[in-house]
């Protein structure tokens, strides 16, 4: 696969802020060798200190990076990682403390990498930061939808976070695809109902699912066979399965629906709530992270000011 040289150059120069003074490291599984070679070739035109590291798939154990690789990360100032595995951010923290900045495309396919690279993250960063700031200064969210969602969330003194796709300063980090303003929900007074029409990473639901929420807990799940499938899914997390962990608004208009959870939650104008565990949980040897339930065309108001209207972001 051949990426757009212009798009690669833009991501390196803008998203990663690569300059002639940097030491650039491209880390990729061997199945992405052609893509990594192209990225490295363009990177070395910006900085002479550019290194490519090719990994065999057996070198990666789930979210763990091999110790020698983690040591090499600390020698770079900028790094891009392409992997089919999940990379836990804690695996990169030692290098980040020493100033390495990262862009990571995880659970990757060649098509996903192509979409991630061919995206204007400057625009996405602007939208995500505006929404995160409004989350941070607001006191109350009200979410509705044409299907019947009606959810009240107190957010006083909470801090919104922006996932921007930009990692231009020392120690910064971003997964790609990026494009989200999210709010960790540690309040105990989230009440109402949310009607979901998609589970992230799955096909659109034939029959919407109704979630009744009381004090930040999902108390009832109503619907047809899709509702029963959701009940089975969240049972894997035990008691944590019904905890509301996060609310997020997607800001990326380049992602593809129904391919993966990491793309679905970034769909521009969509809203998701995450529930289950807020960390990877291993069940029967497989890793599971939080379930993300989507409302594709929400209307959202903050302190009475409409921010999203039927899926259209107004700020």
Radius of gyration computed on alpha carbons: 20 Å
The secondary-structure element order is HEHEHEHEHHEEEEEEEEHEHEEEEEEE
Distance separating the two termini: 37 Å
Shape: globular
According to DSSP, the number of beta strands is 20
Summed up, the helix count is 8
- State the oligomer: single chain
Strand content: 25-35%
Describe this structure as you would to a colleague:
The chain is of the alpha+beta class and 315 residues long. The protein folds into two domains: 5-117, Type I PLP-dependent aspartate aminotransferase-like (Major domain) (Aspartate Aminotransferase, domain 2, 3-Layer(aba) Sandwich), CATH 3.40.640; 121-313, no CATH class. Helix content is 24%, strand content 34%. It contains eight helices and 20 strands. It has helices spanning 5-15, 33-46, 67-73, 93-97, 110-117, 121-137, 225-235, 261-264, and strands at 24-29, 50-55, 78-82, 101-105, 140-145, 150-154, 161-163, 173-176, 180-184, 191-199, 204-214, 217-222, 244-250, 271-275, 281-283, 286-288, 291-295, 298-302, 305-309, 312-313. Strands 5, 6, 7, 9, 10, 11, 12, 13, 14, 17, 18, 19 and 20 form a 13-stranded antiparallel β-sheet that branches. It has a five-stranded parallel β-sheet with strand order 2-1-3-4-8, covered by helices on one side. Strands 15-16 form a two-stranded antiparallel sheet. A hairpin with a 4-residue loop joins strand 10 and strand 11 (204-214). The longest helix has 17 residues, at 121-137. It starts with a helix and ends with a strand.
